[in-house]
Amino acid sequence: MVNALELSGVHQRYAREPVLDGVDLQVEGGSFTAVLGASGSGKTTLLRVIAGFERIESGVVRLGATVFDDGRTTLRPERRRIGYVPQDGALFPHLRVSANVAFGLRRKAGRHHVAALLDAVGLAGLERRYPHQLSGGQQQRVALARALAIEPEVVLLDEPFASLDAAMRASVRREVAQILRDRGTTTVLVTHDQDEALSMADRVAVLRDGRIVADSGPEELYRSPVDANLAGFLGEANLLAGTIEGGVAATPLGRLVLQDGIVASWPGPGAAAVVLVRPEQFEVWTTLTAVPSGGGIPARVIDRAFFGHDAVLRVVATGLADREPLLVRVTGPGAPAPGTDVLLTVRAPVMAWPAPDPAGAVVIDIDGDAADAEGTHLTRQARRPADQEISS
Length: 392
Ligand code: ADP
Prior knowledge:
Layout: E1 5-14, E2 17-27, E3 32-36, H1 43-51, E4 58-63, E5 66-69, E6 82-85, H2 97-102, H3 111-120, H4 136-148, E7 154-158, H5 166-183, E8 186-191, H6 194-200, E9 203-208, E10 211-216, H7 218-223, H8 228-233, E11 237-245, E12 248-251, E13 254-257, E14 272-277, E15 282-285, E16 297-306, E17 310-317, E18 326-331, E19 341-346, E20 351-354, E21 362-365, E22 370-372, E23 379-382
Parallel strand pairs: 3-8, 3-9, 6-7, 7-8
Antiparallel strand pairs: 1-2, 1-4, 4-5, 9-10, 11-12, 11-14, 11-23, 12-13, 14-20, 15-19, 16-17, 16-19, 17-18, 21-22
Helix pairs in contact: 3-4, 4-5
């Protein structure tokens, strides 16, 4: 059986500044976990703690029965059997590919071993090249081969695809995930890129303010985020104020069926809620298409961002004209142009959270500024991390 990696109650600080503030994280042996967090949230520190490059103040880091660090004693990095792939690959520019891969190995570890590793990462035949003679994606795969050379139990990836261009990134991500899965290596990837986390990992843990605030499968995380803030971090989010009646939320866009089980612990009927409608949950009906049977919400397209495969419309719904426009995702080709009148329907079920005490005046803190409580009229959009200039 492959050992689980476990962090419990981990605290770490630089000088006086706490960075990890009671991190609990369980990574099943052989699984692929992504830790998603904004820049500066402590992701690199978390990996350095696991690798043994930073000591912890309190808590425990262990792999199976082996304690790596408990705040008093620490196991040296080279005894942890951990492969580390840093952000930029950090290859030695003056060493050929084969020497880079063999660097951490004892002398005469065997050319066969290096050749087998390069074969595994799809770089057979490039042994004699220097790093500058490789593409960015190839360099990342050399860095991965070097991390795998010590036959690690755990591989740590620190935003390893950030420097690759978009076209290459998707395929390198796919290949790297496949190589690690095939080998059954326990993997922890840290990233600020929600697409990367959601597309590569079996589980995604979210690091915020030095703690893990959510930890679940990617689909569940996106569908039912723990709060409005996380909803915005994971993608575009239309946030509406509403009230709850049974399994339904009454909102300015009509009555929307809620996801199963989310209101079980709520204060009761009539409770105020913040309701999440993802842009892709809207269906858009133009005059050229049939009219929805239950009627739709009349709206006008005011803006369109075209991405090829899809497009995001900004749409003003009648009755919500004094609010921020709604974001609506549609198929790219044929997307309605600005000025088009449309009808909107919502594909339920939707996610919702209890609205904080209206008397408290603070409803959602998405952009860093607190939004005012406005009873049932509130409509705000959480912005994607890209808009918030979150970068590594
Ligand atoms: P992330 O990888 O999520 O961007 P880091 O773990 O690199 O975050 O950093 C977390 C916080 O700790 C940041 O505020 C950063 O400035 C600070 N920090 C990181 N490394 C050091 C260090 N060696 N000394 C002091 N502060 C540091």
